[in-house]
Amino acid sequence: MTPIYITGLAIASALGEGMAPTLAALREGRSGLRRNDFLDCTLPTWIGRASGLEDERLPAPLGQFDCRSNRLAQAGLRQDGFEQRVARAAERHGPQRVAVYLGTSSSGILEAELAFRHRDPASGALPAGLSFRHTYNLYSVGDFVRQRLGLAGPACVVSSACSSSAKAFAAAARAIAAGLCDAAVVGGVETLCLTTLHGFASLELLSAQPCRPCDEARDGISLGEAAAFALLEPVDRSGEALALLGYGESADAHHMSTPHPQGLGAVQAMRAALQSAQVAAQEVDYLNLHGTGTRNNDAAEDAAVRAVFGEGVACSATKGWTGHTLGAAGAVEAVITLLALRHGFLPGTVNTRRADPQFGLRLQLETEARPIARAMSNSFGFGGSNCSLLFGRA
Amino acid sequence: MQASLAGQAVLAPGLADWAAARAVLLGSAPYVPGPAPDPAPTLLPTAERRRASASVRWALAVAQQALAGRDADAVATVFASCGGDGAITHQICEALASPQGVVSPTRFHNSVHNAPAGYWSIATRSQAASTSLSGFEGSFAIGLLEAATQAAIERRSVLLVAYDLPYPEPMHALWPVAHPFAAALLLDPPGSGPAAFRLNLRPGAARALAWPPSIPAAFQSNPAAQALPLLAACLRAGPTELALPYDADSHLALEIPQ
User: Fold this and answer.
1) List of chain A residues whose C-beta atoms are within 8 Å of the C-beta of residue B94
2) N or C: which end of chain A has fewer CB within 10 A?
3) Do A198 and B101 lie within an 8 Å CB cutoff?
């Protein structure tokens, strides 16, 4: 593919709002996880909760969209001059030529979960005021972001579990290549909700401690919430020359919630990303693992990484900082990978003390200053949906 | 953007398969209301069959029919659905609101929007890329544009599967879809087949919808049923233009040449 430039970035997560606190936490090895204090949920786990959403207010014309997911989306969009960059792109190309491609796995489902607690005892009806279109439909977050930014180009919400927002980058890159748009807002938005907390608990995949990806004693995930965005344009307007160089997508064709033990689908996605960028494996300096912290996921990814890279690439998993943000994880980790490229460092693997001795991949435990030229980010999800993104200077 | 239609399938009450839908769309047979079909997940291994929900079975049934014996490994897929699996959303929300608050693990992994894509890849052993998306009332048009874009840019065939099943009450009252509907369209890369059509995103809401007169208007409440105007236009002799709902402020304009 022809490289597509990253001309804007924004993030809000458990590490704080904006690039500065995210970068500081990564450099200082400070995790954003805390003991579960989400609503009245008493599950013994740790979460990456974004602060301040309770006070976030949507502008009046978009009041119907009010829910935790869209509040978080708005908190993300506000960061790092992102909205201004999008506005300039819309001025340049026209709002109908700027696309919105987002990923989420749950959108505003929390609204429906809470509404079910307040059904009419006689009729079973849900409380008045609940809007499917504006909150718990998956497209709600796409519709909201599009209207919030005043855009009218192609729009799409990808929902393929934990690969959702990585795949949004791939879809947006294709839309630009096809001439459907001249710029695209891509990203992921995911909030904590009871479905995912109790769902992962039912699968016995929630750790009772802060998650420790690739640790020999790893025992599950910590959930998190985040909104992360990038502005993609075919021309470099930032002067940084940071670009999406390639993407690769595949399916495991194995099981709904367990990865292929040798990571065959993951191998295919990573190889496809290298091929689409025409970059050799040894030219990649850093790999941001999917690295969730479950026994099976990390072991399968280790096998896949070894098959593609041998031990030649520095790897780390950053979910110990943010928690696993599911549908937003692809975009969150794309932002972290781009920060690593921009500022020249290898992110470490916070919380992890000793890499699994069975693993062959080269795990970066501590964050380390080092210039890097090309970096890959992996996102693998339920249903065996895999996506790898390759970034670098072009 | 251009796309080439190489195969199709339809499943709905009164429209048991493409042959039945074709006859109704051509006006050679009347639409006769019938019970909702209950497709069997014959494609799935036995262990997965029990776990596949109704929306998975509907999506797989049309996907299999439209693929028409081609090698699934060579065909990428796009699954487009506004509401995903409302029955599972209902069961999970109900469980979460109960005092125990316990969610079934199978229900949870089936609740992901890409469950049909996951089961499709398990059933066919296909490792081809798959995208699952939602676009509210424009879900079909958004899926069609995504599938056509993939076919054009990746130069590979793409199977678009659009499906929506009515939500159970009480959520049905908030999104009153009248009938279940699923359709699948097999798109070849542009230039590789005769039945090519052109797609353009245009500003303004779709005004007059070219709804096939032989199909009950109640189907319009199902976003996936927007496949029918396109399939009807592809059957007609002579060039046709039609507009599909995309978003509140835009529509997908289709030009069908033959």
Assistant:
1) 116
2) C
3) yes
- A167 vs B131, B142, B152: nearest CB: B131
SS3 A47: strand
B221 at interface of A, judged by CB pairs closer than 8 A? no
Amino acid at A270: M
Pairwise pLDDT comparison (A33 vs B49), residue with the higher score: A33
Kindly calculate the radius of gyration of chain A based on its CA atoms and give it in whole angstroms. 20
B242: closest CA among B232, B251, B253, B250? B253
Residue of B nearest to A175 (CA): B149
The confidence score (pLDDT) of residue A238 equals 84
Nearest by Cα to A296 from A204, A170, A229, A387? A204
Report which of B33, B58, B229, B131 is spatially closest to residue A164, judged by C-alpha positions: B131
CA distance A95 to B203: 10
pLDDT computed for residue B195 by the predictor:
66
pLDDT tens digits, A335-394: 999 999 999 999 999 999 999 999 999 999 999 999 999 999 999 999 999 999 999 999
Chains A–B, number of C-beta pairs less than 8 Å apart: 202
Per-residue pLDDT of A36-59, as tens digits, reads 999 999 999 999 999 999 999 999
Q: Which of residues 39-68 of A touch B (CB under 8 A)?
A: none
Reported ipTM: the value is 0.98
The CA distance from A188 to A141, in Å, is 9
Does the active-site annotation cover A290?
yes
* Range A258-278 average pLDDT: 96
pLDDT of res. B51: 85
Identify which of A389, A173, A190 has the alpha carbon closest to the alpha carbon of residue A290.
Answer: A389
CB contact under 8 A, B170 and A126: yes
Measured between alpha carbons, how far is A203 from B64 in angstroms, rounded to an integer?
Answer: 31
Sequence-distant (≥ 6) Cβ neighbours of residue A138 within 8 angstroms: A104, A107, A157, A159, B84, B113, B134
**CB B171 within 8 Å of CB A113:** no
- Cα–Cα distances in angstroms (integers) from residue B149 to residues A185, A277, B79, B106, B251, in the given order: 17, 19, 14, 34, 16
Tens of pLDDT along B28-42?
999 999 999 999 988
